[in-house]
């Protein structure tokens, strides 16, 4: 049987070992509670929580999602219960589960990322963080934290100072080349890199002659964006030693294996879960079967396999 | 909530642009209540990608067991694909989802109000209430006669009142006027239709200063239908945020608009 395990934060104060490389993507599995009775959550590599902010948020006006060709656009606006309620009401449940949970955190300012990291440090049930730098920085007129290497590094350095938890940094696809940001977050102390967030997008309703999404713009996800994420994983994995978590249209085991061969160490299943909540498990079983059929003993054998021609 | 793949028993255009699909009632859906819904997954590949939220319409005794129906308007790629399903074709569904209508026990006079395709869950509710020996008045509204569910398909005991905007069937106008007339008569009311209809109904409830319970079955744009995508938000006037799929789709009308 193939060894599918993945480690993040190797050598750090707290190492996180995932028994396999299949995770849920933030915002597509809520906080896991809805599915705890229906599915064997402990069989997955990790869960990533809904995007969590310092204070509770009601989120954006409707319409919040629209289906597009082999994908969808969403603009939920971080509707969430806030980090305090998450720690009080949700983390105790996570603490009883075998599957590690990473909390996806999002701040309006650099400072808020530090506060979030500090609050979550040492909370039973929280195995790590995912730092969402693909959101607007209120302090500098709304430009995404993740679009500027210096700002991204400031966020990561602060989170590193505020927590002993291992953490990954979720990258924005707003830039055509992620490599400078990836290098900056690696140097600033991140333990892993999640590639990637949704792609900024919009849709028009011709009958109303208006944007479909209440907030005008949203993020594109689903099978349609897989090739874009694939290129970013391929490019970034050449310049970093950090494990990469690939997110972007993973729907089948083949998709997941493509990302692994492009250089990812793990995958996050996102939008596909909306179509079939069992997808993370079918992806995992399919990966295992493929590795067994092809005599792959450890996932490490095929990580970046497609890059070895360079 | 379970995922099932079922073979279509019957597929037909029932009236206007409205289509009906009959499917065998699986064990997993045996407990489904009027007002609950399923997600129906359309297409063979990733396009269309997401499920379509459809109410349980009604059930019947078929040749080889209980059957249930989905009633929907053909409005886009997903429902167009659904309408082209034929006898023997497979359809994947997840359900039952959400919180359905909750008729009070021991009350007799039931007023049902449907706007457009909002009739879909009300027919199953009417079937159930008539079976329980209650009095049912069903008010249906649409733009024109083509959008009105056929009276011949309703239980004979149901009193049907029709309102069309162009006056081509029943009284001219919207469902608001008959709702206003019948509200004093009923013990409990149930409504399903577009949001503008609910707002108008609440206007009637407010001015009539009645405490009669009105249950509203909401529609929402959903990506998942299971409380995880946070797409189908509804913002009650008093504050906060609810999800149509998870907290509803049935809400007390006052909890939304008062």
What is the assigned CATH homologous superfamily of the largest domain in chain B?
Answer: Nucleotide-binding domain of ferredoxin-NADP reductase (FNR) module
Alpha carbon gap, first and last residue of chain B: 32 Å
* Order of secondary-structure elements of chain B: EEEEEEEHEEHEEEHEHEEEHEH
Largest interface here, residues on each chain? A-B, 35 and 30 residues
Shape verdict of chain A: globular
Count of individual domains of chain A: 1
- The name of the CATH topology of the largest domain in chain B is Rossmann fold
Return Rg of chain A in Å: 18 Å
Oligomer: heterodimer
Helix content, binned percent of chain A? 25-40%
Short description:
With 310 residues, chain A is α/β, with parallel strands linked by helices. In chain A, 29% of the residues lie in helices and 18% in strands. Chain B has two domains: 96 residues, Translation factors (Elongation Factor Tu (Ef-tu), domain 3); 148 residues, Rossmann fold (3-Layer(aba) Sandwich), CATH 3.40.50.
Task: Describe what this molecule looks like in 3D.
The complex is a heterodimer of chains A (310) and B (258). Chain A has 310 residues and is of the alpha/beta class. In chain A, 29% of the residues lie in helices and 18% in strands. Chain A has a single domain (6-59, 78-199, 220-309), classed as TIM Barrel (Alpha-Beta Barrel), CATH 3.20.20.70. In chain A, helix 2 runs parallel beside helix 3, helix 3 (149-162) runs parallel beside helix 4 and helix 6 (253-262) packs across helix 8 (279-293). In chain A, 56% of the residues are buried. Helices cover 19% and strands 35% of the residues of chain B. Chain B has helices spanning 77-83, 119-131, 176-182, 195-208, 244-247, 253-257; strands at residues 2-7, 10-15, 18-24, 37-41, 51-55, 58-62, 65-73, 90-97, 109-115, 135-142, 159-164, 171-172, 188-192, 214-217, 233-234, 242-243, 250-252. In chain B, a hairpin with a 7-residue loop joins strand 15 and strand 16 (242-243). Classes of the chains: A alpha/beta (310), B alpha/beta (258).
């Amino acid at each position: 049987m193939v060894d599918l395990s993945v480690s993040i934060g190797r050598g750090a104060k707290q190492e996180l070992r995932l028994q396999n490389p299949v995770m849920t993507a933030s915002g597509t599995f809520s906080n896991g509670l809805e599915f705890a009775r229906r599915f064997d959550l402990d069989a997955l590599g990790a869960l990533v929580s809904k995007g969590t902010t310092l204070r509770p948020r009601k989120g954006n006006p409707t319409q919040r999602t629209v289906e597009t060709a082999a994908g969808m656009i969403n603009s939920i606006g971080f509707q969430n219960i806030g980090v305090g309620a998450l720690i009080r009401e949700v983390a105790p449940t996570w603490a009883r589960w075998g599957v590690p949970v990473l909390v996806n955190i999002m701040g309006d300012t650099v400072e808020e990322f530090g506060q979030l990291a500090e609050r979550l440090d040492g909370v039973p049930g929280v195995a790590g963080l995912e730092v969402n730098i693909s959101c607007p920085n209120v302090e500098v007129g709304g430009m995404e934290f993740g679009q500027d290497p210096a700002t991204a590094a400031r966020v990561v350095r602060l989170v590193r100072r505020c927590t002993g938890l291992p953490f990954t940094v979720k990258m924005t696809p707003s830039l055509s080349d992620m490599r400078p940001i990836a290098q900056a977050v690696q140097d600033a102390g991140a333990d892993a890199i999640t590639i990637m967030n949704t792609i900024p997008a919009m849709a028009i309703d011709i009958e109303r002659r208006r944007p479909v999404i209440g907030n005008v713009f949203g993020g594109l996800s689903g099978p349609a964006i897989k090739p874009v994420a694939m290129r970013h994983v391929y490019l970034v994995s050449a310049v970093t030693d950090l494990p990469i978590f690939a997110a972007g249209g993973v729907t089948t085991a083949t998709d997941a294996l493509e990302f692994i061969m492009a250089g990812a160490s793990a995958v996050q299943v996102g939008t596909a879960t909306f179509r079939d909540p069992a997808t993370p498990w079918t992806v995992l079983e399919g990966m295992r079967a493929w590795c067994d059929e092809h005599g792959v003993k450890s996932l490490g054998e095929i990580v970046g396999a497609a890059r070895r021609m360079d | 909530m379970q995922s099932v793949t079922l073979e279509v028993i019957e597929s037909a255009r029932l009236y206007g642009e409205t289509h009906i699909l009959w499917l065998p009632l699986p064990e997993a859906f045996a407990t489904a209540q009027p007002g609950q819904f399923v997600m129906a997954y359309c297409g063979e590949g990733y396009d269309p990608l997401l499920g379509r939220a459809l109410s349980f319409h009604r059930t019947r005794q078929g040749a080889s067991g209980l059957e249930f129906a989905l009633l929907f308007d053909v409005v886009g790629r997903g429902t167009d694909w659904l309408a082209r399903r034929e006898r023997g074709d497979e359809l994947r569904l997840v359900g039952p989802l959400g919180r359905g209508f909750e008729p009070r026990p021991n009350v007799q006079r039931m007023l049902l109000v449907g706007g457009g395709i909002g009739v879909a869950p009300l027919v199953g509710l009417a079937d159930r209430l008539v079976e329980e020996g209650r009095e049912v008045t069903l008010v249906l509204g649409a733009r024109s006669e083509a959008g009105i569910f056929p009276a011949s398909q309703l239980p004979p005991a149901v009193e049907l009142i029709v309102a069309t905007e162009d006056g081509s069937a029943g009284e001219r106008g919207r469902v608001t006027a008959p709702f206003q007339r019948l509200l004093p008569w009923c013990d409990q009311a149930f409504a399903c239709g577009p949001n503008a209809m609910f707002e108008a109904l609440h206007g009637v409830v407010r001015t009539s200063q009645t405490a009669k319970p009105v249950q509203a079955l909401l529609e929402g744009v959903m990506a998942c239908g299971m409380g995880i995508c946070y797409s189908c938000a509804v913002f009650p006037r008093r504050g906060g945020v609810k999800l149509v799929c998870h907290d509803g789709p049935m809400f007390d009308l006052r909890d939304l608009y008062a």
